[in-house]
Design goal:
This protein has a single domain, classed as Alpha-Beta Complex (DHBP synthase), CATH 3.90.870.10. It is 25% helix and 20% strand. The protein contains seven helices and twelve strands. Strands 1, 2, 3, 4, 5, 6, 7, 8, 9, 10, 11 and 12 form a twelve-stranded mixed β-sheet that branches. The longest helix has 12 residues. The C terminus is likely disordered.
């Protein structure tokens, strides 16, 4: 089926485009959506065939599972377990925004994102179109809208050039505002550590909680982060 590119700039007029995108996701198809960082290719996170189609479209194997985008920080505890208190502080400070947190996935979830080893990478995008879609679809597996090895798409047209008719609907909201991928922090180990530097700097992270860089070190002049709340505190 030939892909459709639909305008999704304005909440006053994006209704038909979102209706079509929601229908595609509900039926196991792929959608390209704008985010605050770069354009993403998305699928129903709870549909293994749809997630596999996403990986195939990108030319990526199961050893590189996609992150999951959610509409609100309150969804965190429905998808993750044993979230460290400092990771909660980061989520509260930087969501919605350019922070992806790798956390332990709820073991009861009926999904197959790939070889996750019991983890999931979660993010709340700071983009009105993306969040409006997510509020209707629920959690979506979303990866950058490009073939593996190519530059991330900053427009719907760039995504279409790389992904073509493997995607049913391209939501076009103009140029990506951020143009830099999210910063990824691994919160599954004994300490928080950046595994990919992106939109949020290590120094900014450390104003909220102690986070080690990709080299395993804290910033030389990291400000003193506040104490974490007691375990089990509300997120």
């Amino acid at each position: 089926m030939t892909a459709r590119t639909l305008p999704a700039h304005d909440a006053a007029t994006w209704g038909p485009a979102l209706d079509e995108a929601v229908d595609v996701i509900a039926n196991g198809g792929l959608v390209v959506l704008p985010t605050d960082t770069v354009y993403g290719i998305g699928a129903d996170a709870f549909s293994p065939p749809a997630v596999q189609a996403l990986l195939d479209a990108k030319g990526r194997g199961r050893q590189m599972p996609p992150p999951v985008l959610i509409a609100d920080v309150r969804t965190l505890d429905g998808l993750a377990t044993d979230v460290p208190a400092h990771a909660r502080l980061l989520a509260e400070a930087f969501w919605p925004g350019g922070l992806t947190l790798i956390v332990r996935a709820q073991p009861s979830l009926a999904w197959d994102l790939g070889e996750t080893h019991g983890t999931v990478a979660l993010r709340v995008p700071d983009h009105a179109t993306a969040r409006a879609l997510l509020k209707r679809t629920g959690p979506m597996a979303v990866s950058s809208a490009n073939r593996t090895g190519e530059e991330a798409a900053l427009t719907a047209a760039e995504a279409h050039r790389m992904l073509g008719d493997s995607v049913r609907v391209y939501l076009d909201a103009g140029d990506s505002p951020g143009q830099v991928a999210s910063t990824i922090v691994d919160a599954t180990g004994p300490r928080l550590q950046v595994v990919r530097q992106g939109a949020i700097t290590l120094e900014d992270l450390n104003t909220i909680a102690p986070v080690h860089g990709t080299d395993g070190r804290l910033p030389a002049a990291a400000p003193e982060a506040p104490d974490a709340p007691e375990a089990g505190a509300a997120g």
